[in-house]
Amino acid sequence: MSAHPRLDLNPAFSNPLRFSLVAALSGVDSMVFKDLRDYIATTDSPLFKHASALEELGYVKIKKGFVGKKPQTKLSLTSDGLKAWHTHLATLQAIAG
């Protein structure tokens, strides 16, 4: 008997907020923090907490900079993050199929 595909799900994406965060970033080069926050309907603190956790795993890059004199934080998926996301989605499809 072979192992069930659920065992191949990435635990980093099991939290709904992290899942939404990575899903949103997977379709863009980068996203401004406040735009991502609004898009996934959360607040600053939880978004920063989960984005930082994904950054520690090497899945998300957080880049702080300035636009004029205003600070701006941008988030993007790393190549490892995008690969892990695609693998996670393929696993979900295997389970559903």
Coarse shape: elongated
CATH T-level fold name: Arc Repressor Mutant, subunit A
Number of strands: 3
Question: Could you say which structural class the secondary elements and strand pairing correspond to?
Answer: alpha+beta
Strands across the major sheet, in which order? 1-3-2
Q: Summarize the biggest pleated sheet.
A: 3 strands, antiparallel
Count of alpha and pi helical runs: 4
Q: Percent of residues in helical segments?
A: 40-55%
CATH class descriptor: Mainly Alpha
Sequence of secondary-structure elements: HEHHEEH
Number of domains: 1
Give the N-terminus to C-terminus distance in angstroms: 18 Å
- Poorly predicted ranges: none
State Rg: 15 Å
Organism: Corynebacterium hindlerae
Domain Winged helix DNA-binding: 17-95
InterPro entries: WH-like_DNA-bd_sf (IPR036388), WH_DNA-bd_dom (IPR027395), WH_DNA-bd_sf (IPR036390)
Protein name: Transcriptional regulator
